[in-house]
């Protein structure tokens, strides 16, 4: 690891001052950042530690009924939070199922949303792949058991790794992003970048930008929401398939449906096909199965990951059932 | 003059009286009627508090004045020629003190990604790491092969252009008796072994033709890397130009000494190897290793101590792995379930090395009329294999015990019953199978596979394991009794983690009627007397008889001192709880400390040597062991949940039941991890490992570990003073096969390839069946 400077700003304003040097990066829990630095994938001159800024750590119910989450809230705080537990079991579950207790105590939701791809070619200094400016994608014709089944045609088959992103997207979350001068609100939907747009980045975030708040709209409290994550092992494993659904129900009729697939595509994947099946219909087990099938209509598997299609169909089905209280196992 | 003793041997509830001759200087072996104070009970590790409080110092923790940090530069390519090395920039980098090439003769060929090219020493590890990046190397990349099946083809790239000799370590089980093994292309072998000897392939085939039922199938296992918590490495310190002191993370202090002496052409007595504590080895830590020699070379060049510890990536790439295997079985039986013929054609790869055999279980668990095994090593451009916890057996058992299970279903006999019918010669195994069946609730098992409604299916499975009774001879345990009555035990072997120091303290405390904590154990230092390398599960079986003998000899010396003081003869004396007394007059006694204070000079010194067992006839060359698995499989997602493992094992006379159960737990956990998760994945297009870490190379974590119900069966053989047999390796052997058989019982489909991940379960369920 190269030497670096460690900046400890005391206020949000100071963060932006430190970020003026383009070779600076924000460090929150540092879990992802340090992994990248240890493998020599990045070598920033300065880390700007935002962890000590308490103003970025909150979960609050606003007067207008929205719920705000500060980016520095750790995954364990999120999983234990009463408001989140009460209204957003999907988000709670997503946070709870990530990594290990030790990592969840350090990792923050801001960092979780911004973490980089876990593609093993990307994560190894031995492979100079397209995402790192190299000439080709090693995964498309290589070891792609954990890679994308959707949206990978554009030359990079990473899967979006963040579990909280999947849950938050199903909850129509909005990010508040600041660069010290301007603040903007952005649908989480528009935060992630597909390879076709820019293969070298996963989010639209610029180096000098800070996520200062994550907002969940008021009406989402009335959505029945669930998150399910399948993994090969139960201790600190990444998902093979994870799905969040949020359904606005009127009796057993579904008025609005959000179905988001994680680990399926380079971005959290909003399954319009599954949502279409659900919206305006009475939800039965059969319909939930149909939505699961629909979610994979456009799937384009690679040599080693066909099984993921089967997994997504089932997880979508189970998440829908569980969201509205039907037992999917009978 | 040998003495004749009466002994009670066998299973505890079925003891048989025998007589046996033992050497004059040995105590009567413990037998089935001896009820002992410590031995066979649960004694906490004497060094447990040091480990849990961080006071235990591992090689990694050794810090010497002026010490440098070593680093090895390795080939990133699986197959290349190193044409030019330019390290001028690195040599000038701050803190760099020395650079040493693996070979001064260039060009040099590298045959796997991770092969050593040079070593560098600097004042900090960071400087060493950064300096390595400045080294410029000109490689000529060559063709390579990393797939075992592609490597077998006659037109494949050939990894070794000259013949390769098998290199074995203390951990390898099977000796090769052939002087010459055929090598064609990348195929080395086959090595044929048969029972009875000298039958031909025709003989086994015609016997198979005559069998009522023949089951044929192919099973595959993956490459597993050792992943010990502490990585490989040493601290090397030259005390003089010709005296070397080394702290090594090793499971063989004496083999490290031997190899370093040979490399530097020094008498072994000039080298001291110390391993006070070590963080696991599993078979990959015999000998000094390239890194050990490199550290010593760098230390010699700089005249400063050098610490060179590998990182996690190097662990996966270069210092050993369990070879993979492809095992093709033909199992022939009669309609009544009598096993008649076993044929195995197997191959596998240990990378650029050898040792991929998997035929042990097929040759040893049952005794059919004929067994024929054919095993070949296939070379690929990958890091060499190494002995790994029961070399050959977890892979062989996964294949063989599944094939046996499949055969039982084909014959229409309960797979447990099938195993009982065919192992009547093995009284211990019979007991273990019945005991385990009771514990897992075998009678509640669904007779027909795939009988549960709903997507979550439950199943039970069983598998046998076989391991060997081995020990090493010539090892010396020394005991000092000091004038203040305190006791020291000395031996130079290392504690690989199994808890041997505690066990030796127990043996001595038992013989001297002291407390375990009264025995001060000095261990892990080649200056303390010859001890075994921890391979083949020999440590306990090699050292405990010597320790008991040494304690017995020390006791006799104490009796010699006490006898005149008590006006009697030594043979009339006895010992109990800190008192030496006249056997017939227990009140006529002296305390241990009173007698010790009369020691002439400063101490009593007594030694015990491990010689060959006093009892040989009727002693088993093998140990049995069975495991049962209870699993739930989600047939919609391929998710396997292990509900419970029952492990029933024997290992002669149990010493410390607590450390023994720890070994079984560890073995089962490693077995689960092997069954469901672990897999070294080499990129097919570049030959480079894609998961050389502990995140993407998946290992069972705490949430993946089920209830483990472990029972140790006492089997007294009184073959020597202690009667102990090792357990470290056998505990991991049958786990993956038991799980595979349980999965079949749950879902009605065989998963014949490891690891049994969701994709493989789903493929087995749907793709092959075509639904
Ligand atoms: C073994 C293991 C298993 C894991 N499994 C999972 C899993 O299953 N699912 C999952 O989702 N994650 C998983 N993770 C990833 C882990 O959750 C993330 O690495 C962690 O959440 C990152 O948070 P952090 O606070 O440590 O981020 P940091 O490492 O501090 O930062 C990560 C990135 O986010 C940027 N950043 C941080 N905060 C802000 C902000 N407020 N505004 C703008 N940019 C910011 C940083 O500049 C950096 O680029 C796993 C990690 C490990 C090591
Ligand atoms: S999937 Fe993307 S990150 Fe992975 S190798 Fe291909 S281009 Fe690189």
- Helix percentage range of chain A: 25-40%
CATH class of the domain at 426-470 and 617-771 in chain B: Alpha Beta
Determine and state the CATH class of the domain at 54-114 and 163-219 in chain A.
Alpha Beta
Please state the overall shape of chain B, judged from the principal axes of the Cα atoms.
globular
Spans of chain B of at least 5 consecutive residues whose pLDDT stays below 50 are none
Please tell me the overall pLDDT of chain B: 96
Major beta-sheet overview of chain B: 7 strands, mixed
Supply the number of helical segments of chain B.
18
What is the averaged pLDDT score of chain A? 97
The largest sheet of chain A, given as strand count, sense and whether it forms a barrel, is: 5 strands, antiparallel
* Corresponding CATH architecture of the domain at 54-114 and 163-219 in chain A: 2-Layer Sandwich
- The proportion of residues forming helix of chain B, as a percent range, comes to 25-40%
Global structural class of chain A: alpha+beta
Number of strands of chain A: 12
Strand content range of chain B: 25-35%
Distance between the termini of chain B: 76 Å
- Assembly annotation: heterodimer
Bound molecules: flavin-adenine dinucleotide, iron/sulfur cluster
């Amino acid at each position: 690891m190269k030497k670096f400077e460690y900046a400890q700003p005391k206020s949000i304003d100071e963060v932006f001052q430190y970020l003026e040097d383009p070779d600076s990066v924000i460090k929150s829990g540092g879990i992802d950042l340090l992994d990248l630095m240890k493998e020599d994938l990045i070598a920033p001159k300065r880390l700007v530690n935002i962890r000590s800024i308490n103003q970025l750590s909150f979960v609050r119910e606003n007067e207008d009924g929205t719920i705000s989450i500060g980016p520095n809230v750790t995954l364990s705080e999120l999983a234990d939070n009463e408001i989140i537990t009460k209204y957003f079991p999907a988000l709670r579950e997503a946070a709870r199922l990530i990594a290990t207790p030790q990592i969840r105590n350090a990792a923050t939701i801001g960092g979780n949303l911004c973490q980089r791809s876990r593609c093993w070619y990307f994560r190894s200094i031995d492979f100079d792949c397209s995402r790192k400016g190299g000439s080709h994608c090693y995964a498309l014709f290589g070891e792609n058991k954990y890679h994308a089944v959707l949206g990978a045609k554009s030359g990079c088959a990473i899967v979006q790794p963040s579990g909280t992103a999947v849950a938050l997207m199903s909850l129509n979350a909005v990010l508040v992003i600041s660069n010290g001068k301007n603040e903007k609100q952005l649908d989480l939907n528009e935060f992630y970048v597909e390879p076709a747009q820019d293969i070298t980045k996963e989010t639209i975030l610029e180096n000098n930008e800070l996520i200062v708040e994550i907002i969940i709209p008021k009406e989402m409290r009335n959505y029945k929401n669930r998150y399910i994550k399948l993994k090969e092992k139960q201790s600190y494993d990444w998902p093979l398939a994870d799905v969040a659904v949020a359904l606005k129900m009127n009796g057993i009729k579904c008025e609005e449906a959000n179905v988001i697939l994680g680990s399926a595509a380079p971005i959290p994947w909003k399954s319009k096909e599954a949502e279409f099946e659900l919206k305006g219909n009475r939800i039965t087990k059969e319909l939930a199965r149909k939505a699961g099938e629909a979610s994979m209509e456009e799937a384009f598997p690679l040599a080693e990951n066909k099984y993921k299609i089967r997994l997504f169909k089932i997880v979508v089905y189970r998440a829908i059932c569980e969201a509205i209280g039907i037992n999917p196992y009978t | 003059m040998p003495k004749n003793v009466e002994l009670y041997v066998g299973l505890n509830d079925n003891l048989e009286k025998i007589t046996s001759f033992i050497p004059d200087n040995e105590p009567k072996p413990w037998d089935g009627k001896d009820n002992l104070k410590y031995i066979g009970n649960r004694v906490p590790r004497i060094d447990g508090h040091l480990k849990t409080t961080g006071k235990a110092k591992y090689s990694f923790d050794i810090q010497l004045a002026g010490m440098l940090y070593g680093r090895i530069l390795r080939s990133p390519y699986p197959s290349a020629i190193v044409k030019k090395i330019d390290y001028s920039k690195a040599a000038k980098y701050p803190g760099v003190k020395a650079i040493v090439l693996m070979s001064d003769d260039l060009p040099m060929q590298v045959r796997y990604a991770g092969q050593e090219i040079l070593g560098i020493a600097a004042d900090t590890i960071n400087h060493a790491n950064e300096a390595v990046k400045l080294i410029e190397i000109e490689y000529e990349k060559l063709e390579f092969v990393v797939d075992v099946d592609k490597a077998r083809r006659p037109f494949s790239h050939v990894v070794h252009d000259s013949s390769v000799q098998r290199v074995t370590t203390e951990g390898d089980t099977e000796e090769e008796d052939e002087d010459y093994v055929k090598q064609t292309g990348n195929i080395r072998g086959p090595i044929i072994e048969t029972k009875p000897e000298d039958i031909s392939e025709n003989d086994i085939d015609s016997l198979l033709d005559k069998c009522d039922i023949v089951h044929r199938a192919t099973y595959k296992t993956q490459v597993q890397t050792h992943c010990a918590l502490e990585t490989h490495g040493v601290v090397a310190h030259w005390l003089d130009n010709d005296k070397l002191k080394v702290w090594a993370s090793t499971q063989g202090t004496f083999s490290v000494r031997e190899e370093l002496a040979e490399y530097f052409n020094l008498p072994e007595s000039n080298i001291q190897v110390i391993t006070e504590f070590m963080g696991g080895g599993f078979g990959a830590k015999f000998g000094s290793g390239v890194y050990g020699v490199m550290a010593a070379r760098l230390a010699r060049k700089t005249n400063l101590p050098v610490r060179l510890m590998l990182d996690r990536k190097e662990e996966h790439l270069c210092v050993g792995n369990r070879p993979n295997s492809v095992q093709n079985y033909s199992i022939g039986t009669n309609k009544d379930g009598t096993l008649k013929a076993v044929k195995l054609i197997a191959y596998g790869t240990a990378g650029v090395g050898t040792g991929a055999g998997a035929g042990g279980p097929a040759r040893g668990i049952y005794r059919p009329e004929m067994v024929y095994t054919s095993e070949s090593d296939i070379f690929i451009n990958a890091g060499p294999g190494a002995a790994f916890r029961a070399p050959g057996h977890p892979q062989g058992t996964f294949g063989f015990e599944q094939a046996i299970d499949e055969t039982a279903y084909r014959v229409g006999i309960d797979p447990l019953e099938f195993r009982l019918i065919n192992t009547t010669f093995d009284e211990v195994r019979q007991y273990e199978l019945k005991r385990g069946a009771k514990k897992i609730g075998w009678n509640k098992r669904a007779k027909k596979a795939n009988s549960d409604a709903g997507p979550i299916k439950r199943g039970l499975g069983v598998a046998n394991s076989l391991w060997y009774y081995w020990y090493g001879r010539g090892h010396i345990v020394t005991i000092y009794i000091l004038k203040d009555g305190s006791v020291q035990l000395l031996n130079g072997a290392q504690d690989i983690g199994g808890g041997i120091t505690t066990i030796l303290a127990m043996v001595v405390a038992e013989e001297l009627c002291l407390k375990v904590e009264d025995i001060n154990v000095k261990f892990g230092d080649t200056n303390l007397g010859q001890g075994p390398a921890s391979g083949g599960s020999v440590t306990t079986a090699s050292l405990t008889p010597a320790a008991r003998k040494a304690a017995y000899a020390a006791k006799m010396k104490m009796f010699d001192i006490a006898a005149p003081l008590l006006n009697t003869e030594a043979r009339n004396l006895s010992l109990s709880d800190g008192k030496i007394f006249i056997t017939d007059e227990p009140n006529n006694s002296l305390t241990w400390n009173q007698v010790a204070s009369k020691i002439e000079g400063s101490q009593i010194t007594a030694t015990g040597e491990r010689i060959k067992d006093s009892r040989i006839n009727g002693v088993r060359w093998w140990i049995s062991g069975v495991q049962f698995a209870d699993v739930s499989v989600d047939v919609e997602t391929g998710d396997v949940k292990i509900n419970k493992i029952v492990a029933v094992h024997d290992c002669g006379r149990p010493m410390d039941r607590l450390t023994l159960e720890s070994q079984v737990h560890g073995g089962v956990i490693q077995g689960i991890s092997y069954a469901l998760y672990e897999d070294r994945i080499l990129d097919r297009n570049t030959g480079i490992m894609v998961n050389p870490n502990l995140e993407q190379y998946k290992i069972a974590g705490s949430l993946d570990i089920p209830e483990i119900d472990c029972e140790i069966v006492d089997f007294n053989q009184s073959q020597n003073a202690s009667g102990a047999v090792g357990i470290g390796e056998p505990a991991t052997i049958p786990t993956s096969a038991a799980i595979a058989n349980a999965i079949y019982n749950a879902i009605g489909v065989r998963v014949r390839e490891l690891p049994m991940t969701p994709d493989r379960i789903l493929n087995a369920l749907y793709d092959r069946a075509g639904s």
